[in-house]
Amino acid sequence: MHKLLSAAVAALAIGSAPVLAQPTDLLNASYDIAREIFAAQNEAFVPVYEAETGTAVTINQSHAGTSTQARAILEGLPADVVTFNQVTDVERLVEGGFVSDDWQSEFPNNASPFYSLPAFLVRGGNPKNITDWGDLARDDVQVIFPNPKTSGNGRYTYLAARAWANEEFGGDEAQVEEYLTKLFSNVPVFETGGRGATTAFTERQLGDVLITFEAEVLSVRDQLGAENYQPVIPSVSLLSEFPVAIVDQVVDNRGSRDLAKAYLDFLYTTEGQEIAAGHNHRVNDETVAAAHAGTFPEVRLVTVEDEFGGWAQVTEEHFADGGLLDRVFLNQ
Amino acid sequence: MIYLTLIIVLPIMAMLLKVGGMGLEEFWRIVASNRAFAAYRVTISAALLATAFNGAFGLLLAWVLTRYEFPGKRMLDALVDLPFALPTAVAGLVLVTLFSNTGWYGQLLEPNGIKVNYTLVGIAIAMFFTSVPFVVRTVQPVLEEVEGGLEEAAATLGASRWQVFTRVIWPTILPAFMAGCVLSFARSLGEFGAVVFIAGNLPGLTEVVSLLIFIRLDEYNYEAAAAMAFVMLLLAFAALLLTNALQVWQTHYANRNG
């Protein structure tokens, strides 16, 4: 037994020794509905990187809920970079010592190369006449969005609905909670991730309205036909940042920092921004944004900082066990 | 022994250590909360439903597979193991599609007011699907070994077919049958992949324990997840002890009458 253990320890030690040669592959741990956009980014990045450095690289993708991804990295998934949809999940990696705490200043725009907002998708012709957040609490409306407990996408939806209600009811917490409780009781099924919710709405024809990122809403419309589905952009919504970060502990161990940096930088280049906009994400590059202005209607966006005092406070007040989300979730 | 220690005992120890880190009060607050209780209730009732169905259906299937010759028998025999080989998430997706209001089964059931998806019945069906091989595969070998001579003797002594079954065959296969049922019950308690798709995941109504554990992990609440897992472990242990007790009783019973 003793011998076996020390052999195992020795094997582990060898396995984790730093690799000196610069690796030619990179693992991007990302969220559930980002498969398509990163598949396109990767395809564009590989030849650009090869032209610059003469090295052919492989970019691997891993997709799941971002909390699940963050936990996987904390437990040893060797992801070189993360492309998440929630700041809080990157913060977990900071706490775990995997990401440096100034990560948001390492890349432009709070390390968020593109952004989106929770928006609605309704069935063709908008039979239930759904135009804004208030309609979602009506008795005759069924709403589909993913479980805020397991999905960042769902958490944005909850916060966006709350931001609207705060304004509508002049900050009266009782009325806000009543609205949210009504909204949650209109949900027939909570899928665990954003793509699952889309499938429930489109494949299984559940519900009258799907709430998910505008990027997903527009993509569904593009793929399944404008006559079958139409996007509805609410009067106000929440800025949803998609933060990216280098996982320092992994890249230092593997010697892949340069590649990781080049990869994330690429997302900010004109080409990278163009791909993001082509996949219905809003971008900050002014030229690209202007070229795609027709795709994205004007909408007033509030931020988590202004409306809720930042992510740390949101997590504590709303999403912790027994927090405000549980109050509306369990009062149905 | 080392295998078992490394693969089974140590992981369980690690989980217990996590639970041991919290006070009794804290542990109780987590595992006895309303939401947790609702999840146990949903999970256990669905598992019982699935096991009842599994017992009846599995026994029938084992009987058909051992006693009859028919074309496609090998195929059917192989099909029994499919739920073991199939990723359970795939099973869940397929079931939810079949039972949706546009699916093959759903379009027949829903007009008659029977809703399967996102109800307890749906959860039970997913559990049934993933645990059906247990009863078949534990009963089948015992049934194969029941001596033909014994049955013939009983028949010669004037026993009817029903009497042969209840007095000769049933007591022989009962322990295996019970063991299969308990295994299928224990497996159903922990099923995650197939269940999350069809359950609806509404807290208090269709939220199963394995999903609640998953949610606690997503909240980075490892202790709470471990505490709930510990409760499930106790349930599984209780189930296994029950089978053993039943088997011991069964052996005594058989010896006394033998």
Map the helices and strands.
The complex is a heterodimer of chains A (about 325) and B (about 260).
Chain A: H1 2-15, E1 25-30, H2 35-53, E2 58-63, H3 66-74, E3 81-83, H4 87-95, H5 108-111, E4 114-116, E5 118-123, E6 143-144, H6 152-168, H7 173-185, H8 194-202, E7 209-213, H9 214-224, E8 229-232, E9 236-238, E10 240-241, E11 244-246, H10 248-254, H11 257-266, H12 270-278, E12 282-283, H13 286-291, E13 300-302, H14 304-308, H15 311-319, H16 324-330
Parallel strand pairs in A: 1-2, 1-3, 6-7, 9-13
Antiparallel strand pairs in A: 3-11, 4-10, 4-12, 5-7, 5-8
Helix pairs in contact in A: 2-12, 3-4, 6-7
Chain B: H1 2-20, H2 24-31, H3 34-67, H4 73-80, H5 82-85, H6 88-98, H7 106-109, H8 120-145, H9 148-156, H10 161-190, H11 193-199, H12 209-218, H13 222-257
Helix pairs in contact in B: 1-13, 3-8, 3-10, 6-8, 6-11, 8-10, 8-11, 9-10, 10-13, 12-13
